[in-house]
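Question (not urgent): is this output format expected?
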Amino acid sequence: MPLSTQNYMIDPEERERVRLKFEGITKSFPGVLALDGVDFDLRVGEVHAICGENGAGKTTLMNILSGNLQPDRGTIFLHGDEVLIQDPLQAQNQGIGIVYQEKSLLGNLSVADNIFAGNQPKTRWGLIDRKKLLNQTRQLLRKLGMQDIDAHTRVDKLPPGKQQMVEIAKALSRDPQILILDEPTAAISEHDTKVLFRIIRLMANQGKSIIYISHRMAEIFQVSDRVSILKDGKYQATLMTRETNIDEVIRLMVGRDLKVFDYQNLAVPEVVLSVQNFTGDRFNHISFELHKSEILGFAGLVGAGRSEIAQAIFGTLPKEQGVLKIRGGETAIRCSTDAIKAGIGYLPENRKDQGLFLDMSVDENIRSVKANTGENTWFVDRRKSRELSEEYVDRLEIKTPSVQTKVINLSGGNQQKIVLAKWLSVNPDVLIVDEPTAGIDVGAKSEIYQLLNKLTAAGTSIIMISSDLQELLGICDRILVFWQGRITANLHRSQFSEEEIMHYSSGTKDMYRTTTN
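Got this back:
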């Protein structure tokens, strides 16, 4: 098993030994210099964070280490020896494990089959030993503090946060000496984040090395020993975490002063959308109103039903009962096309699977929603389409060589802006944004907050689902708190506090019941 329950520290001299070193790593894609002579080293028993804006080159660097990409120039040293990592299997054999920001699990297989994929225990006849497989999975999950995950369960039946924990267990099942974590907490709960940090510290204490990529500054300062910063594909600096601060790291990342989001109450009494008694899978008797120019936050733990309610409003998830009214008129929404025609847009949590056509261009993605608005799309004025896309690229400061570039070649933050751009192109009355800043850098976050504020100033009403409490507290006019598929609180801005939200989201307080749990 990969982790011993013993809590011991490795020798201080051993901790100073370099396990991995990059020298002059350079990588180009069509029209993009992703890495430009990057140097980096990783020590034994170290948690080393890598920071940078979206497009800085972090994921490209990790894809080179994990064998998914080959550098154009540069050298990799592992344990002092020069190595060429030609594919993921070779990286795995070298003791390198990776947990990607985007999930790599097979939804139709069980947790056990995913964790030990390609490494299942076999019987004497060469068949998979199901009993041993399940026992190994349960033992691993228990050691990692993930015993609430059932080894039998199909992965697609788990909420996104638990799927991420399965990804982590899968990487640890092979006992890697180097573990790469790319935005590991973007979709997991506060409890699971604590579990993950315990695992990270235990691994480091046993002499293993962790590369931690995150845009969440507080996490980096909580868990890492050193932090390296990239900007526009170039190495900026490596700092001891305890000797620096968030402001210094952000300055090196961004190279500019961030615009401070200034909260403005732009909501008016007019009700744009009314949800009455919505009941379905993972949500029960949900009723609320959304006002014009309001930003209404949805808070709650992973699995509380927030995304399911949004999908039911948008018509991509069925409901058993309930009435939806838009501007006072009852509206039947049976599918996403009905929702779009009714003036509702939806930016999903999983942008790559649900929000984008990765093999299509920026231009094709931005105008893709118009195909569902009733407009004649047989004859597209290519020049006008390109001009509109270029306008949104400029407005949202999307970093792309051109609007003809395939979206798959852009960074996560720029992909997120493209999802926003395609909805802006149809000017929705109501825009639902589900984890809109998950996995994107502080600079892009600031820009998205400013953009959402501009939308409400222009009359758009926004439902914002986020697991980042500071985000909700900073931008929302009201916050609805969910627990086990129910609304437990409707908080106005004067009532906002992290402590109160955590009480309501864990069921220890409930505005709509006379007794507490």
